[in-house]
Amino acid sequence: MASNEDSLINEIKRSREIVKSYDSGSFADIDESEVFDSSYYNKIDRFGFRHPEGYSETSDESKTKKKDISRLQKWDKYVKAKAGFRKDEKFRKRVYKGVPQRFRGWYWESMLDVKNTKDQQIHGNVYKNMTEKGRNYSPYIDQIDKDVNRTFRSHTSFEKRYQGQQKHLFNVLVAYSVYNTEIGYTQGMNGIAALLCMFLSDEDAFWAFSNLFTVEKYGMHGFFALGFPKIERFKELLQSLLKKHLKKLYKHMKEMNIVADTYVFKFFMACFAHCVPPSLMFRLFDVFILEGDKMLLAMGLLYFKKHSKKMLKMNDEKLYEYMNNTLPQNFGYPDDEVMTELMDLVDELQRSRTFINKLTQPDGKKECPNRFFMCNTEEIQKRIDCFEKMCIESLPNPSYLRIEEKKSPTKSQKSGTDENSATRNSKSSREMSPLQGQHSIDSADELSFSERSYIPQSQQAVQIVRSNSQPKTASPKKSPTKPAINHTVQVEIESQPVKVEKTNLNGSSVSDTDKKLARPASMYTNITSSADETNVRSSHSVNSFRNSVPSSPLNNGLLSTSHKSLND
Amino acid sequence: MAAGPYNYSYIFKYIIIGDMGVGKSCLLHQFTEKKFMADCPHTIGVEFGTRIIEVAGQKIKLQIWDTAGQERFRAVTRSYYRGAAGALMVYDITRRTTYNHLSSWLTDARNLTNPNTVIFLIGNKSDLDAQRDVTYDEAKQFAEENGLMFLECSAKTGENVEDAFLDTAKKIYKNIQDGSLDLNAAESGVQHKPSNGPRGANLGGESSGNKDPCSC
C-alpha cells in the first residue's frame, strides 16, 4: 500500500515538474536528443514545416500560393457576411479548391461552431477550469508530455521543447484529458490538437477539438475511445470499399498480408497527417471539417486508387516502404487533382445508399461518450486526495494561456501576446473577422450536401437535457445516493428517442439556450451538489481549484450520447 | 537482386514491445536504416520494418513489428504477438517506471507467444548514463531470473542495437538447428523459404511469398 502511495506521490511530483517546465519554457537538464536539430533542416515551407537543405518549392506549390492570394477576396466576403454565410454547394467547391492559408483559422473556427460553443457555457469558463484541474490532477501529464515532444517536430512552432506551440498543445490536451474523462488521453489525439493549435488560440482549439469529438458528423470520440470501436468499424468499411472499387489491389494486398492496422490508425485518427505531405494534409483536414467522417473513407479509397498501379507491382516490404516513406514526402499528384477527385468520390459514395447506411449505423453506445464529462474518475480523485493529504498547493493557470473571460465581449480578443506570435495566423484572421462565429447555422443554410445534419455540440446538450427532462420518472433514479460524481453516473438517454424539430435545433439564440438549460440544470442539482461535496472533501490546499470548478457538469454538451437519437 | 525466387532462406518474425517513449521505433529505425531518427513521431497502431541479415552463412529476413506503447493500444497490438519468433522487450534506463512495467509486458509476451519465442530484454538510452535510473546489474538479474537475453543499447548512438537483433536471430536459428523449434508448428514465427513457399498460417503479416519479390 505504502509503495503505491509513494509511486503516486512520485508521479505527482514528476507531473508538476513537467507542468512547471512548460510554464517557464525551460528545463534544467534538457536531454539534447530532445532538441530538434534545426540547423540541418533550414528550409521552411509556407506552412512552417522545415525541410533539409536542397528543398525547393514545387511548381505546383507556388501555383497554389498564387491562387491562394487571388482567392482572398472571395473568402473575405464570407468572413464579412453579416448574416453569416451560406454553406452551399458553391461554398463547398471553394473549400475543395483551397481555403486560403490566411482564412484557415477562421474557417475551422466557424465550421466547428467554436464561438457558439464558448458562448453557451453557463457556469464559468470550462477551458480555464479544465486547464487548472488538468495541470494539477490529470493522470496523463507524463504521457502527454512525451507525445507533445514528438508532434510535428519539423514544424517551426513545435520544434522547441517546452516552448512555443508545445505549451499550448500541452495545455489543450491536459485540459481535455480531465474534460472528456471517458477517454482521458489516447495517443494520436496530439496530432489533431496540434493542427488546431497551429491556427487557433488555446481556448478555441480546445472547443474545436471537443466538437470534433462529440459532434456526430465527425464523431472522433469513437476513434479514440477504449477498444477503438470506430476505427474497427471504419476499417471494415474501408476494406469493403477497396474490395468493391479496387478489387485487384485488395487481392494483392491480401496476398502480401498488408496489415490494415499499419495505416487505418493514421488515416482516421490523424486525418492522413504523416501519410501525405503537409500541403495536402491541411487541405484534407479542411475537407474533413466540411464533410465529416465520410471523407476519411473517401480519401482512404482515393489514397489507394491513385497508387494502385504502382502498388500492384510491389511486395510487402516495398509497399510499406512506399506508404511510410515515399508518399508522406511526395504524394505524386498535384494537390488540386487529388482534391477534385476527392470531391467526386465523396459525391459518388454519398449516392450509394448501402454505403450511407453502413456509415450512419454506428455501434451506438460504444462510439459515443456514455459518461458525464468533467467527472472525477478514480485516478483523478486519487490525486485530489493526495494533494489534500500532503497539503500540496495547486498550480494556477499560467499567464500565457489566452483564456477569454466569459463576460467580456468577443470583439477584440487580442489579449495576451505570445513569444510565438509569428505563427499564430489566427490572429490575423481574427482581425479580419470581427463577426466570427456569429453566423448561426439556420435551417436553410445547413449543409445541404451533408447526409446527416450538423448539430452544434452545445445544442446537443440542450437536446439531451430535454430528452431527460421530459420523462420525469427518469430523474429520481439518479445519484442522490452516490457520494460523488463518478463514472457510474449515467443517464439513460438512448431509451428515449428524442424528437428533434428543426426549429428547435436551428437558430436558437444564446439566451434561448440558457432558458432551456435552466430547468434541467436544476434537475441535475443532486449530481452537482455531490460534485461539490467531493471537492469539499479535498478542501484546504485545493481551495483555489474548488472555487473554480464549474458548478454543473451540464454545460457544453457533456453528454453526446444523444448522437444516435438526434439522428432519428 | 540475387537470382532465384528468394535471396534469403528464412523469415523470422519479431515484435518490439515496451512502454511508450522507451524508444521502440527508434531502435527499429536504427536497425533498419542505421541512423537515429531525432524527430520520430510516436507509433499509432503498428508499424512494420524489415532487414535481411546473415547468421551462420544463412540469409534471414527479419520482419519486425513495432507497436504503440500506450497501455490502451495493447488490445490492438496483442494480435501481433502471435507467431513471433523473437520479442524485443524494451525499457528506458532513465525511467524506472518503464522498468517496473516489464513484468506485465513479460506476462503478455509469455502468454501470447509460443514457448520457444526468444525474448530479449533491451535497456535503451544507454548513452544517457548520467540520468540512469535503473542499474545494469538489477536488470541483468531480472533477465537471468526470467531466462531472458539482455543488453543495454542506445538507439541514438547505435551501441549494441545490431547485437540485440542479431543475437536474437542467432538464438532462434540455434533453436531450429537443435530441433527445439518446430518449423512446421503453426505460429513458430519462422518460415523456411527455399523448398516450397510459405509454411504455416501465421497471423500478422508474413509475406506469403508466393510472388516473386518485385525487382522493378
From TrEMBL, chain A:
Protein name per its UniProtKB record: DgyrCDS226
Report the residue ranges that make up the Rab-GAP TBC domain in this protein: 98-292
Q: Name one GO molecular function term.
A: GTPase activator activity
Q: Where is the composition biased (Low complexity)?
A: 471-484
Q: Which PANTHER family match?
A: RAB GTPASE-ACTIVATING PROTEIN 1-LIKE, RAB-GAP TBC DOMAIN-CONTAINING PROTEIN
Q: Give the species.
A: Dimorphilus gyrociliatus
UniProt-listed Pfam families:
RabGAP-TBC
Recorded hits in InterPro entries, A to Z, give: Rab-GAP-TBC_dom, Rab-GAP_TBC_sf, Rab_GAP_TBC_domain
Region Disordered: list its residue ranges: 402-440, 458-485, 503-568
Where are stretches of biased composition, namely Polar residues?
410-426, 458-470, 523-568
PROSITE patterns per UniProt: TBC_RABGAP (PS50086)
Automatic annotation (TrEMBL), chain B:
Co-factor requirement: Mg(2+)
Q: Which GO terms describe its molecular function?
A: G protein activity; GTP binding
**EC number, as in UniProt:** 3.6.5.2
Q: Which GO terms describe its cellular component?
A: cytosol; early endosome membrane; phagocytic vesicle; recycling endosome; trans-Golgi network
Q: Which domain of life is it from?
A: Eukaryota
- Kindly give the InterPro entries that the UniProt entry links to this protein: P-loop_NTPase, Rab14, Rab_GTPases_membrane_traffic, Small_GTP-bd, Small_GTPase
Query: Per UniProt, which keywords does this protein have?
Result: Acetylation, Cytoplasmic vesicle, Endosome, Golgi apparatus, GTP-binding, Hydrolase, Lipoprotein, Membrane, Methylation, Nucleotide-binding, Prenylation, Protein transport, Transport
**Broad class of enzyme this protein falls into:** hydrolase
Q: Which reaction does it catalyse?
A: GTP + H2O = GDP + phosphate + H(+)
Report residue spans for region: Disordered: 188-216
**Topology of this chain in the membrane:** Lipid-anchor
Give the subcellular location: Cytoplasmic vesicle; Early endosome membrane; Golgi apparatus, trans-Golgi network membrane; Recycling endosome
Q: Which GO terms describe its biological process?
A: defense response to bacterium; endocytic recycling; Golgi to endosome transport; phagosome maturation; protein transport
**Is the Nucleotide-binding keyword given for this protein?**
yes
The record's family statement is: Belongs to the small GTPase superfamily. Rab family.
Q: What is this protein called?
A: Ras-related protein Rab-14
State the organism's lineage.
Eukaryota, Metazoa, Spiralia, Lophotrochozoa, Annelida
